[in-house]
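>> received
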Amino acid sequence: MSGLPAGHSLAWLLVAAVAFGVATEAARRLAWAIGFVARPNPIVRSHRSPVPYLGGVALVLAYLVLLTGSPSRGGSPLCRDAVGRGLGALAFAAFGTCDDVRALPPAVKLLGQLAICGACLALTGEPLSPGLLLKLLVLTTLVNAYNLIDVMDGLLCLLASVAMLGLLATPGLTPLCLRHEVALGLVGVGVIFLFNCPPARVYLGDAGSHALGFLIGSWCLAAGRGAGPLRALSLAGLCAVPLLELVLLVPARLARGSSPFCGSPDHFALRLQDQLRWSKWQVLAAAGGVGALFAVAPWFAALLAPPAFAAYVLGATALAAILWHGVWRIPPHRTG
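>> returned
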């Protein structure tokens, strides 16, 4: 990781990986000890035994401790934006934990998300303008998109990793200070994937999905600051699969007369498992491949001339529509 003091890059990443692993194992044991576990869910037919929560809390707390102690800062304080993002992740971890303990009403959940996102934008000095409302919409949308995608072992971690890798791999997309945040988040998500992949030994819960959605959304907004419309649009490719899941679930649930926040077997991962008999690893491979296919959008935006990139966007949009329609045609299983 360029920018860290000489000799610290690999050593610091290894220290971070160990710290994330220790934090996750400690959180997993604590969740078992206090009985904070996810019971088998009739919507997710493959969920047959209790799984401890607190994976998301461990991820966020370890991330914040490591971020403040990173040698890359050389003793200097965190910048205002980094503080805002860190506090937002912590607030969402707490908010999501409350939702894990007892499911919050949909209206309360949405208002809480808007309040935390709005407060964090204000903390970073975002002026009151139409741009603020757009950023608030982006953040809230991504928080919900990553929250909704977390319905199968390993899926949230995998798709969060795809977004982070896309941010890091695109030349000139992220400033050095932001790259340190994203790289640290990638290490954390990679380590927790080892606990969360099938069969999961810990769940990140709403605490983890809310915090990751917020961090990825905040990083995308920071990366797109000052970018042209096409370059800014390309960042949506980093989160393509969670956004497609959102676009799938909202109309499916509204068509049944239920809230988009209420659980249902309409998730693409559940349709593929229940109706096509795919294994969890097959779903992960397909989701990761599709996610990577769209995550190259920022790289193409930097490489291609505007007309060529506009053609790429049209092609990617057509592919997304085909994938959405293909999954929509797979009926979800009935729960009652």
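>> The first helix runs from residue 9 to 34.
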